[in-house]
Amino acid sequence: MIFFFASAGASAGYLTASEVFPLEVRAQAIAVFFAIAQGFGALGSHLYGHLIGNGSDPNKLYVGYLIGAGAMIVGGLVEAFLGVAAENKSLEDVASPLSMVRKVGAKSSDARPQGGPLPHNPGS
Question: Which pLDDT tens digit goes with each residue over 14-30?
Fold first, then answer.
């Protein structure tokens, strides 16, 4: 059961990284998050191996589970205060591509990628 929630937490991290960064740096952001996760994964296996030891004291492993639960709670609090409201929005609405060009005073719907076609304006 614990690994079910841990897996969901990791998946949420990758989804968040893929949504809140502009298109041009999205893959790099996912790679950085993946590298950080691999580092914590290596530390976690060492920590839990040390806590399990020879299996004589199950209370040590319980401490490890409390550390994991604390990490999940901290992650939830960070999301609650710093999270980006991305539900029901396109990725471009959450994080505009870096190549997006906007006219001064224009609406975001008037923006276009550099070198892309001009938006259709029926009034001109």
Answer: 676 777 888 788 888 88
Of 63-72, 91-100, 112-121, highest mean pLDDT: 63-72
Token output for 85 = 């409201």
DSSP one-letter string for 45-59: HHHHHHHHTTSS-HH
- Residue 96 belongs to a domain: no
How far the first Cα of the chain sits from its last, in Å, is: 61
- The residue among 34 and 122 whose pLDDT is bigger is 34
Over residues 73-100, mean pLDDT = 80
Q: Phi and psi dihedrals of 112, rounded to 5?
A: -145, 150
In a domain, 115, yes or no: no
CA–CA dist 71, 36 (Å, integer): 15
Closest residue by Cα to residue 64 from 83, 48, 78: 48
- The total of structural domains in the chain comes to 1
**With contact defined as beta carbons under 8 Å apart, do 20 and 95 qualify?**
yes
